[in-house]
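FAQ: What does the model actually see?

It sees only this:
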Amino acid sequence: MAERAAPDTDTKFNEFYTEVKEIEKRDSVLTPKQQIDRLLRPGSTYLNLNPFEVLQVDPETTVEDIKKQYRRLSFLVHPDKNQNDADRAQQAFEAVNKAWKTLQSEDTRKKCLDIIEEAKGRTDLMLAEKRKKYKKEGKDRIPEDDPDKYKHAVYVLTMKLFADMERKRRDLAERDQEERKRKREQEIEEEENLKAQREWQKNFEESRQNRVESWQSFQANSKSKTAKASKKIKMFKPPKNKPESR
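And it is asked to produce this:
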């Protein structure tokens, strides 16, 4: 007989199930297809660089609330929930997952917040100059005095800064790859040169040994020939003189 699940496990499962049902009910007007289309719309390569934009949360949102939003969106666009559009759902799911990982980390989240603060600061400076220009023209207000238009101006500059950061990251990665490639090629060249030097040294040693052996053989043959010639000279006897017959 199977063991009964612990009460604590049952409670957690029930809480999770209740949360899932609440998500389904709350997002009934925001369909998975709409979220997939949003995350894969034209220009999404750069638009999705802003993790707050991907998860549709404000920069001031707490990490806990960001996590809830991440669960909600990942549930909506999960490939298993969109089997009729699994490939696009997978891309959307990966975008959501990447955004959450970025904001989950304190370091990367701070970098994103710094970019947004920089966008706000630069936007305020540009709008201050624009107000001066409008005042000279006798105009009291600028279009960006409207909160929605101001927010849009910050949004546009934020996207630009995220895009600039990504380009710098890619350039740095490309330079790093080129440098690693150059170093590897240099290492290969040095290894080949060392191998060639060792091969030359080996051949030289072998040829020297052959030369020595050849010289020794020549010397031995020369001594042998000299000895034989000397022996022949020693063994040579002049003919005896015969008396003259009368």
